[in-house]
Write a structure and sequence with these properties.
This protein is α/β, with parallel strands linked by helices and about 250 residues long. The protein contains 7 helices and 10 strands. The protein binds S-adenosyl-L-homocysteine. The site of S-adenosyl-L-homocysteine has 24 residues, from helix 4 and strand 10. This is Precorrin-4 C(11)-methyltransferase.
Length: about 250
């Protein structure tokens, strides 16, 4: 059996209990060395075979999995955050399907929610935004039609932008097509790692601040009025509002 496991954003205690238990049993672990903290491998048993996928191509990763399976071993493919978001797991799963190799996916804490926790924010605020857009600047690996940040900005939703901090100036330019320049932005570098940095600003000044800190990788760009001071109180906890579990008071 092969397990695709979300390692979480960095702090090794943010893997799920299920993910950790499987990692403890694994005979072969292939992990994304550039993004997953090496300390997480401390969970592994002695004698485990470890591959760092940072320097491997897709066929090499698949070969390593196949070899483990042929030897009756338990194989873990460890991905940063949650595997379903910019994890490139689809191509691995399709290849395993072709070869008749069984696999399961264990979700993880994605870096966009980890970043929100570090800035102590709620993405969905009544009267502000009930929608989160997860996206990235179109880059070397391409993006689909209609996915341009300038188009998405027009929704003025809460936004989490992955893989894009190296182009922060262009990202800001595109965002300004929808949001006003006073919209709060937080850039969270290596959320939950010891070297984490949080830079707060607005669309007006964030590019300069990020430049000053020389952050050009491994960061979330969070954008939206959900980080501002205005919002409406939640109806769910409003004392005059009735719902399935509570009667409202007059
Ligand atoms: N599957 C991962 C994303 C992989 S793509 C997830 O769910 O988080 C890699 C990008 O994710 C990085 O360029 C960065 O934008 C973001 N990222 C991953 N870990 C991060 C962290 N700890 N803090 C901030 N951003 C992170």
């Amino acid at each position: 059996m092969v397990y695709f496991i979300g390692a979480g954003p960095g702090d090794i205690e943010l893997i799920t209990v299920k993910g950790m238990k499987l990692l403890q049993k694994a005979d072969v672990v292939i992990y994304t060395g550039s993004l997953v903290s090496g300390n997480i491998l401390d969970y592994c048993k002695e004698g485990v075979t470890i591959y760092n996928s940072a320097s491997m191509s897709l066929p090499e990763v698949i070969d390593a999995i196949q070899e483990g399976i042929d030897q009756g071993k338990m194989v873990v493919r460890l991905h940063t955050g949650d595997p379903s978001i910019y994890g490139a797991i689809r191509e691995q799963m399709d290849e395993l399907d072709k070869r008749g190799i069984d696999f399961e996916i264990i979700p993880g804490v994605s870096s966009f929610v980890a970043a929100a926790s570090r800035v102590k924010a709620e993405f969905t605020l009544p009267g502000v935004s009930q929608t989160i857009i997860i996206t990235r600047k179109e880059g070397r690996t391409g993006t689909s039609e209609g996915g341009k940040i300038s188009e998405l900005a027009k929704h003025r939703a809460s936004m989490a932008i992955f893989l894009s901090v190296q182009s922060i100036s262009q990202v800001v330019e595109e965002l300004l097509e929808g949001y006003n320049e006073n919209t709060p932005v937080a850039v969270v570098y290596k959320a939950t790692w010891p070297e984490e940095k949080i830079i707060r600003g607005t669309l007006k000044d964030i590019a300069e601040k990020v430049g000053d800190e020389k952050i050009n990788r491994h960061a979330q760009i969070l954008v939206g009025d959900f980080m501002g001071s205005q919002y409406e109180l939640s109806k769910l906890y409003d004392s005059s509002f009735s719902h399935m579990y509570r009667s409202g008071k007059e």
